[in-house]
Design a protein that fits this description.
Number of strands: 7
Order of helices and strands: HHHHEHEHEEEHEEHHH
Structural class: alpha+beta
Radius of gyration: 24 Å
Strand order of the largest sheet: 2-7-6-5
Distance between the termini: 37 Å
Length: 279
Amino acid sequence: MDAESWLAEEIAARTGRRPAPPLREASFEELGLDSLAAVELAGALAARLGRELPEEVLFERPTIGALLAELEAEGAGPAPVALPAPHPQDAPFRLTEIQHAYWVGRTGFLALGDVSCHFYAELEVEDLDVKRLEAALDRLVARHDALRIVIGEDGRQRVLSEVPPCEVEVVDLSRAEDFEAACERERERVSHEIRPADRWPLFGWRLLDRGAGCGVLQVSYDLLIADAASLLILTEELARLYAEPAAELEPLGVSFAQCVLSEPPPEALERARAYWRER
């Protein structure tokens, strides 16, 4: 796909309509690109090129021609993404900024602390095969480094190379006189839990069993290890591994530590700081 066709596809994805050629002299406004869509388009181009774009492309020459010039100067093919070398498992590395904020907030260091950023959900299930779910969870944990994270007192995280098999706790409520009331008591126990950050796992699965694998499945993740988008991926993959135990998922190819440690070079950060200071 040539540079102009690629840009047309990207514009269509953000405006809902494919622009007619020629694009070179068109402005962002003429093509229906608001400021947010223009920034997203420039970000997609920067990712394709594997480098930062000059500031004037967005703020002094906001035309498609300027973007095309950047593409044509580097060639239309995507540039390889430079990643740091694989980080040794069990070796500590820094937290992301959001992880660090969550980690500080869960301590008593702040006046309104002692709170965990925590995802909790319940699923109604029928005929749940607990052993099959545990096997699927084991495969998911082996696949995703972030599910094996612990955070030490020094505020650095480690991906454990080995962890015990996952266990889905089964709470037998088959003899409860009021199943809903019993569920409410169990919900109160775990829906606001703060799991110790230095102990694995930072997630949990519990079945409130009405009998024969039917009942309520409680799902709990500390957001130190996953954000909302990640939870969607984890849920989709777990559902597939449960439905198809022999399924082979596409290899990831990049570790969590590599993503964390592949921060922009210092000169790029300094350019960004300088720009916003001047603004």
